[in-house]
Recover the amino acids of this structure.
């Protein structure tokens, strides 16, 4: 009898645990209504902040560099340093724009397609000086800028925009772009 009760109770407990781990609110997948001019988007974007994850965690002076290829795909170079006294390293990937998304959703493949990720350009400044990048499941997010330096007020304003997309903005940390930022509050 106990075994039967446990079997009947287990699915309910798992559902309750799942709701608790998401704060009780199941968010629909993130989408973007941005209309991206790919030619203007190409070039170097400094990673001002992100939700740290294994591939980018602890890196400094990071940037994403995009180049439109002849075949319509996008060469994606992730440039980074392990510390400011180390040389720049790169990871290379290829992005494909998802048709029908106004160039706002990309599928990126690194390491010959072994590692894949979806990227959503949520917003971009009218002058393409900054961009907010998301992920359909909100597991990742980035604040990009054309300039390596961003003042705290602008950063906080951009980070706050992520809350409208259902992000927990407390997860974002700034990426040190300059040596004096290492170890500062709010930085990785």
């Amino acid at each position: 009898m106990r075994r039967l009760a446990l079997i009947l109770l287990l699915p309910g407990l798992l559902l309750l645990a799942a709701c608790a781990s998401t704060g009780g609110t199941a968010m629909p997948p993130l989408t973007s209504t941005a209309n991206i001019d790919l030619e203007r988007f190409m070039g170097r974007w400094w990673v001002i902040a992100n939700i740290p994850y294994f591939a980018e965690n602890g890196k400094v002076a990071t940037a994403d560099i995009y180049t439109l290829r002849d075949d319509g795909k996008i060469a994606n170079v992730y440039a980074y340093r392990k510390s400011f006294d180390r040389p720049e390293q790169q990871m290379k990937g290829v992005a494909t724009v998802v048709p029908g998304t106004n160039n706002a959703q990309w599928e990126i493949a690194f390491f010959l397609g072994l590692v894949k990720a979806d990227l959503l350009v949520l917003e971009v400044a009218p002058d393409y000086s900054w961009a907010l990048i998301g992920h359909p499941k909100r597991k990742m997010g980035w604040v990009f800028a054309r300039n390596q330096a961003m003042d705290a007020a602008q950063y906080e304003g951009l980070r706050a925009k992520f809350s409208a997309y259902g992000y927990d903005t407390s997860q974002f940390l700034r990426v040190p772009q300059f040596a004096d930022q290492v170890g500062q509050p709010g930085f990785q």
The first strand starts at residue 43 and ends at 50.
